Amino acid sequence: MDMPQPDPAIIARKAQIVARLQAVLPADAVIHEPHEVRAYECDALTAYRCPPLAAVLPRTTAEVSAVLRVCFEEGVPVVPRGSGTSLAGGALPTADCVILGVARMNGVIETDYANRFIRVQSGRTNLSVTGAVESDGFFYAPDPSSQLACAIAGNIAMNSGGAHCLKYGVTTNNLLGVTLVQMDGTVLDIGGAHMDAPGLDLLGVICGSEGQLGVVTEATLRILPKPEGARPVLIAFDANEVAGACVSDIIKAGVLPVAIEFMDRPCIRACEAFAKAGYPDCEALLIVEVEGSPAEIDEQLALIKAIALRHNPVEFREAADEDQAKRIWLGRKSAFGAMGQINDYMCLDGTIPVTALPFVLRRIGELSKEYGLDVANVFHAGDGNMHPLILFDANKPGDLELCEAMGADILRLCVEVGGCLTGEHGVGIEKRDLMAVQFAADDMEAQLRVKDVFDPAWLLNPAKVFPLGVTAGRRAA
Amino acid sequence: MDMPQPDPAIIARKAQIVARLQAVLPADAVIHEPHEVRAYECDALTAYRCPPLAAVLPRTTAEVSAVLRVCFEEGVPVVPRGSGTSLAGGALPTADCVILGVARMNGVIETDYANRFIRVQSGRTNLSVTGAVESDGFFYAPDPSSQLACAIAGNIAMNSGGAHCLKYGVTTNNLLGVTLVQMDGTVLDIGGAHMDAPGLDLLGVICGSEGQLGVVTEATLRILPKPEGARPVLIAFDANEVAGACVSDIIKAGVLPVAIEFMDRPCIRACEAFAKAGYPDCEALLIVEVEGSPAEIDEQLALIKAIALRHNPVEFREAADEDQAKRIWLGRKSAFGAMGQINDYMCLDGTIPVTALPFVLRRIGELSKEYGLDVANVFHAGDGNMHPLILFDANKPGDLELCEAMGADILRLCVEVGGCLTGEHGVGIEKRDLMAVQFAADDMEAQLRVKDVFDPAWLLNPAKVFPLGVTAGRRAA
């Protein structure tokens, strides 16, 4: 490959931007050497890479405001970044952008148990929010699989969920307020540690906005008292459809488990080979967890067992103690690592009505045959948030494209049955062209106009969320 | 009083608008005779009245769209109206406006128990949503006091709560999607019967937007399985502060009652005189309700009792049966009617952190002495949503103004302790000038710009939510 010749005008422009950023930040907070910025060239959607012009790592809201003001004045696109764990390319740079990473903003600002909230800087990792309050018997509910690494900023950007969101809701249900810095550097204080808000409630539209409206620097989060206990059961079936019907019946019956996780045979096999959790050899497997006092747990599990038995499971395994409970979760929790060992894969994230599960699983099986690509299903079945993993060979020419085409077909299927394109991973670059499948032109236009208001020059997290064709006329020159 | 002379230009303009509305609606759906439009001159904030130019009662989304297009083209302000139960003047007309009432749009469009949602036209009353599903064991959770009359459209506009929102959340937590008609007649389909939404989530900002962004014609609502049972206890104290501290301790302990209602002595006395519920003669009274299976109820009530006893209550009364449970609720449920029997009152609606309850109650007592106006407190204490009722004499010159000044002081106090201006009644005209107490100029500006996007000519529900001074330059001429 020919090396591109450096363009003197681009070099001068970059030098000017870096100098202005260095003028408002400590020296160690501006990263601009080519070998250094490469660390920010991609997020967890590693098929796409592009080193940014520079990256900054501010420590305070005031520093974030200063950075954005500089970029606003210079017309430089800004890509906000939490921990870079996005599976949808939500933090993918463009070559002319500044990456604004919040990783150094990880402090706890205030903890208030009586009013049940914690206020943190947005770069704090999800798990360390719970870490800050668990010794006092509290926890922060949303628990994405990446919770050890992912930042609250990213959770808010993508409205992240997790295995336990069936009971506790996703980020938007646990977010009380944010400090948001707009592209021009203005600092907004939205929501707070109180119920409701007068006037227009901007918090809802900021949560899940994928860095399109501003940079969240601080967040007030609801914390909950830890339940007395929790217990999982494992239910094995000889057909996906039967497992799907069982999920649907559990939900219909009005029991509210904290989690209903689903794995199909390809996924069970891979996990078993990797984690040796002792899973049965079966077509489909559910892990259902309930929580509460021992009496509440017994009561709920009895009801779940009765429902499950009506579907003739191959096995119904209760966890008799903590160790058995851990083994039930072990395979599920290592699913993504296990799949990565045996194959390249693309992880989808569609949401469907729970009753459509059997139909959608059958159609995915048919699509798998049509495209000649295997699919492993592992997902949060209780709330219909599917994560089909399409297996492909990155070294085989055309396989990635085939995989992307099949992924798009599966997401179209989700929309057709009354669901939507994303549950918790966001649109990013991955699904931007599918937005037109979900939204009529007027519906999308309403969103674009809200984006116009917050970021008139379209400098924030460019080329994401919306189809490029739709936004071409709106973007900064 | 001199009768104003009819202005021929105004008469001609009215005739033109009415004719255009009649051209797009059935004859019985356009109300314009002066004696007829008077029915729409106020909502439940009856101190303010103004007959509208006309009122329309469409039956479908298409008719709503047609009405809005006519008004958009004519530059006529539109005031959307549910059942007219707003306590904040949210549906107060202006003389030049068309009232768009959704009362005839009260059908059920779809019920889906497996996926736990119901889709209704927005004019359906809150209670009749539950009515449509309760024989199948389900209910719709938000339960404002006016639930017999108030419409889902108004619940969405004000993000209404109710006694049981401590456990189930307010409207925004139970709303899955809406059909929204914009001022220019465009119909948007926002959210739906699935978790999460790709792109910008506009549902959050529409919920609670008080008719500023569009007219909601249909709503998809979450329905929940009815709990096995529920049981209230009544706890009486000899001081407000002690009752407040008890509430704070219950919340801190991590029990989650469905309701914690608070009444102080003036309210208890009025209710007792009116409803004869057999309430004890005390300074403050809590009604705490828990729900679940009999075992769960016993377990939760034992914990609540232990906490209450540490605060030396005058009485701790458990409901032994359904009849006693009804009597415990009887006084609370008749509170607003009871107060209305003995006095004119203004009902406030501030929200505060639960731990600030004792302090805020003491300060309200001090303000009551300073202003020489009695205050009765009855409110949803569990989530800090206060409803102080300021008693005044509507026939005494200056008393309403004094009452309004005191109300503003109490709401400022709520904001000072970290709370907010409204819990569930909205801003309306009542609190528009206090918005500047809650929001810095930049924060308010962000809201105004979102309003600009949805309603550029500022024709929707004019003169509400935002301070008139702030919005003067933005309104339609």
UniProtKB/TrEMBL annotation, chains A, B:
Q: Which Pfam families match?
A: FAD-oxidase_C, FAD_binding_4
Question: Which residue ranges traverse the bilayer?
Answer: none
GO molecular function annotation: FAD binding; oxidoreductase activity
Cofactor(s) needed for function: FAD
Q: Where is the FAD-binding PCMH-type domain?
A: 48-226
Q: Which InterPro entries match?
A: FAD-bd_oxidored_4_C, FAD-bd_PCMH, FAD-bd_PCMH-like_sf, FAD-bd_PCMH_sub2, FAD-linked_Oxase-like_C, FAD-linked_OxidoTrans_Type4, Oxid_FAD_bind_N, Vanillyl_alc_oxidase_C-sub2
Gene3D superfamilies, per database record: 3.30.465.10, 3.30.70.2740, Vanillyl-alcohol Oxidase, Chain A, domain 4 (1.10.45.10)
Q: What keywords tag this UniProt record? A: FAD, Flavoprotein, Oxidoreductase
Alphabetical list of PANTHER family matching this protein: GLYCOLATE OXIDASE SUBUNIT GLCD
This chain belongs to the protein called FAD-binding protein
The scientific name of the source species is Fertoeibacter niger
